[in-house]
Amino acid sequence: MKLFSSVHDVDDINALVKEALTLKQHPFSNSHLGKNKTIALVFMNPSLRTRISTQKAAQNLGMNAMVLNIDKEGWALELQDGAVMNGTTVEHIREAAAVMGEYADIIGLRSFPGLVDRELDYSEDIFNKFVKYCGVPVVSLESATRHPLQSLADLVTIEELKTKARPKVVLTWAPHVKALPQAVPNSFAEWMCRADVDFTIAHPKGYELNPEFTHGATIVHDQETALQDADFIYVKNWSAYEPYGKVLGNFEDWLLTNERLKITNDAKVMHCLPVRRNVELSDEILDGPNSAVVHEAGNRVWAAQAVLKRMLEELD
Ligand code: AN0
Ligand code: CP
User: 179 and 73 share a domain?
Assistant: First the structure.
């Protein structure tokens, strides 16, 4: 694997899930694969889980991991081709990415969307430029429109915790105080539409995701209807796709409660984290027996390790 930016970069998602679960049982079974290999984890935005789980995954494979918070510790990057750089930007992504490619065998990149220009965000301008100029395999640590390591960890979690062959999985929108990217729900939907699950998306009217990601899902605008007999509930806020990046209203009644869990099949509740308590998810759910959020975050290591293993196996 030379690129991990979406589900489209994976031939067989079930095999990758299986690989992650095998690595969870035997974390150090491939610890020679990454000997003398280096991964650079480049962050243009904050992170807790992605940064540490990917670092740990790399270490389990015997790699060296270097982390650069380029937004805080690097030079201000210019992204425009042909720019006359007489303003605040100090270094062009052409040189910055190429130089990092000299130091690393694999690069991980996190680059959130601006949520202003939809066309620009959905063209994955920053991520694609980085891939083009760095010249080494790249793994997405969440780009403008997708978060594939999260989605793989989510699928691993569902595979582990499911109690029937084809569970019902519901992605539900939740309230938030800020405009958040569509990357996590886009990506989750894209993976679930290819997994062996019965997949429903619930959101208030106006929060429709780009249909490119949701093709094949059942989409409803009533949370209660969606939750009927659900085995997994994936809670996430996102801003509108149209009008792009906007918060359309509070919809406080979309906050999941224990009362609402009663109509589910004792559903496990998932969230990628970080979560705002009592805004996106209630204390009673997060502290209750149905919460799978910490378990899910733990699986980020095995998802990252499965992907890095595939990349290391194909390094020149
Ligand atoms: C980010 C998002 O919603 O994409 C990162 C989630 C992993 N969340 C926030 O900015 C709170
Ligand atoms: N879920 C996730 O990607 O968390 P971080 O933003 O903390 O990396």
Answer: no
